[in-house]
């Protein structure tokens, strides 16, 4: 076990950047690569080296049957990803419809239902670029954003991710903006005759807004556009991106074009430059990241190394924690609307994030700087501010969400917007609540007797699935959520013989693979229950082992079998090493975190040794 631990420590140390951060790629498939080609061609920006590099990466991901997938076991392909790839390759000008692999792609698109079957956001992109008609009206009108926060339903009841994307989308949609160029391909042959994509209106919402707002329609429309523009400009990060997200920045550019801003306007130029800065290299191919994960990677890596015995004075830890200190937020963001009495103090996800902190990054950063905060004044001040912010973010139901407080109204589930549950809501989740409890118990010394902790424990116990698992919102899925819940409950003193803990352990053992490891399919989100991958992944195996360690009083045969598989996967990585274990939007947006295969196995190894001593097989 010592050899494996040393090897993982060495990999992490060698992969640290000069500024102290870890910049593992944030890999999300080919959609952002395709959208970058489409954006550059639409704006007439002839960055041929970048476009050619993106063409090569997109083609490298095509399946033998002509389709593209979001994850390896998806089946015969994903129609949305295939349309995006096909469109981008044609728009690049470097591929033609008559190319054999393009013909195969077209055939698969038609077999899967054509353009009508793609995801809502892809239809928006197609409408923006002249390939698909706009619907007559969206179920959420732009005038909705004029309602003040004091109203029972307003823009701040949407998740911050929803606002970031919906605001620019609606600006362009209400103007029915479309921009074709001389290089635009013709995708009309991908339309399978059916009904159009007109979205049903939410009549109650429309009537609510009409009753609530006073003024002539034109005045309302102009006021709503001005409010939307002000909101977008107020949330542009220093690198020119909107909230540091690719999708919202892409939509920002088209919203400004729809409003009459020229393509060489400074906001658009800076936004394009910000998107270009998301470029990374993966296995010799160029990939446009959706965002960067530098703060998240750095917090996790620093914490894992310290848990594994790397001393605080080691230069790797010093540099990492200095980087984290420099990224603590001092700006107020949208989180303060529902939490007006707290000072800023959290951390965000990406390197350039300055106003959108989240609970998970904050607890991760606090784990990393905990020891330093006991020795240095600047870190102690950071620690105190962050803890105050973190406690203030607990939802009224006792749980913790990702970005904001009490933003989980079930109303949004019923809007006819695809993926509304993930796009528009930010409710308490088992993974965030469990990981926050783990932080409170392990690093702050709180127990289940503390009032705030007790409420969070009650929330977790109330949300355990009947089979003993928990659903994790930001990872894949039930193994992830169960790991977070079990380690959190254990850290605050819920005993191993508690019925909920026993049910969780029994469930984890019931899904252990024959080889001793664990592996969950991305299909679990559609099935709303655990679906096996049919193979073990290093990350799922590490999560399951960490949970079992937390809930056990002594090593077990199942743990030893799990570690044997983990060691094998570390020494002989296979396709499961790159299988997505994170998600942004179920069914559409999956994440391969390149650092997870080192960080979480190292944590499982360290926690085993801390609790049971050296591993003996």
Automatic annotation (TrEMBL):
> What's one GO BP annotation on this UniProt entry?
triterpenoid biosynthetic process
SUPFAM superfamilies, alphabetized: Terpenoid cyclases/Protein prenyltransferases
Q: Which UniProt keywords apply?
A: Isomerase, Repeat
Q: Does the keyword Cell inner membrane apply?
A: no
Q: Which Pfam families match?
A: SQHop_cyclase_C (PF13243), SQHop_cyclase_N (PF13249)
Pathway(s) served: Secondary metabolite biosynthesis; hopanoid biosynthesis
Q: Does the keyword Repeat apply?
A: yes
Q: What GO CC terms are in its UniProt record?
A: lipid droplet
From which domain of life does this come?
Bacteria
Alphabetically, the GO molecular function entries are: intramolecular transferase activity
Family per record = Belongs to the terpene cyclase/mutase family.
Q: What is this protein called?
A: Squalene--hopene cyclase
Source species of the chain: Geobacillus thermocatenulatus
């Amino acid at each position: 076990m010592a050899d494996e631990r040393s090897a993982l420590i060495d990999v992490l140390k060698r992969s640290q950047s000069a500024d102290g951060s870890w910049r593992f790629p944030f890999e999300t498939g080919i959609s952002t690569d395709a959208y970058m080609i489409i954006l550059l061609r639409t704006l007439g920006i002839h960055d041929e080296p970048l476009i050619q590099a993106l063409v090569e990466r997109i083609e490298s991901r095509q399946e033998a049957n002509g389709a593209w997938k979001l994850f390896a076991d998806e089946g015969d392909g994903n129609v949305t990803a295939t349309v995006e790839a096909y469109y981008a390759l044609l728009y690049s000008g470097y591929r033609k419809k008559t190319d054999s692999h393009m013909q195969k792609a077209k055939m698969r698109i038609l077999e899967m239902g054509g353009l009508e079957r793609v995801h809502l956001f892809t239809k928006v992109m197609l409408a923006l670029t002249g390939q698909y008609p706009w619907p007559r009206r969206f179920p959420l009108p732009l005038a909705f954003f004029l309602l003040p926060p004091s109203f029972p339903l307003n823009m701040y009841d949407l998740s911050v991710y929803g606002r970031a994307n919906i605001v620019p989308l609606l600006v362009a949609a209400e103007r029915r903006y479309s921009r074709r160029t001389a290089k635009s391909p013709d995708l009309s042959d991908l339309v399978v005759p059916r009904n159009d994509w007109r979205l049903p209106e939410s009549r109650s919402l429309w009537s609510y807004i009409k009753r609530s707002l006073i003024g002539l329609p034109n005045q309302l429309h102009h006021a709503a556009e001005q409010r939307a523009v002000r909101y977008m400009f107020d949330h542009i990060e220093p690198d020119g991106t909107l909230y540091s997200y690719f999708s919202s920045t892409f939509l920002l550019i088209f919203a400004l074009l729809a409003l009459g801003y020229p393509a060489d306007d400074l906001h658009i130029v800076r936004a394009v430059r910000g998107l270009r800065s998301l470029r990374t290299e993966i296995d010799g191919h160029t990939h446009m990241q959706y965002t960067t994960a530098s703060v998240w990677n750095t917090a996790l890596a620093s914490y894992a190394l310290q848990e594994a015995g790397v001393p605080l004075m080691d230069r790797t830890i010093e540099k990492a924690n200095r980087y984290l200190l420099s990224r603590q937020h001092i700006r107020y963001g949208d989180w303060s609307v529902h939490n007006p009495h707290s000072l800023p103090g959290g951390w965000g996800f990406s390197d350039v994030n300055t106003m959108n902190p989240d609970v998970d990054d904050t607890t991760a950063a606090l784990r990393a700087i905990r020891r330093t905060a006991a020795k240095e004044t600047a870190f102690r001040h950071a620690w105190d501010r962050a803890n105050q912010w973190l406690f203030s973010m607990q939802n009224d139901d006792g749980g913790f969400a990702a970005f904001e407080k009490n933003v989980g109204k079930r109303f949004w589930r019923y809007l006819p917007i695809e993926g509304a549950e993930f796009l528009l809501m930010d409710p308490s989740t088992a993974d965030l609540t469990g990981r926050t409890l783990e932080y409170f118990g392990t690093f702050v010394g709180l127990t289940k007797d503390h009032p705030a902790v007790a409420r969070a424990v009650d929330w977790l116990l109330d949300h355990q699935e009947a089979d003993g698992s928990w659903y994790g919102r930001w990872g894949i899925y039930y193994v992830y959520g169960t790991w977070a819940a079990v380690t959190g409950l254990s850290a605050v003193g819920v005993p191993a013989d508690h019925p909920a803990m026993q049910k969780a352990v029994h469930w984890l053992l019931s899904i252990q693979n024959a080889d001793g490891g664990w592996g969950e399919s991305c299909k679990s989100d559609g099935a709303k229950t655990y679906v096996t991958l049919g193979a073990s992944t290093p990350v799922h195996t590490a999560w399951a082992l960490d949970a079992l360690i937390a809930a056990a009083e002594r090593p077990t045969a199942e743990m030893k079998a799990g570690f044997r598989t983990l060691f094998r996967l570390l020494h002989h990585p296979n396709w499961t090493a790159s299988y997505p274990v994170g998600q942004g939007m179920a069914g559409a947006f999956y994440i391969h975190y390149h650092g997870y295969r080192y960080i979480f196995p190292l944590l499982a190894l360290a926690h085993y040794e801390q609790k049971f001593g050296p591993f003996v097989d």
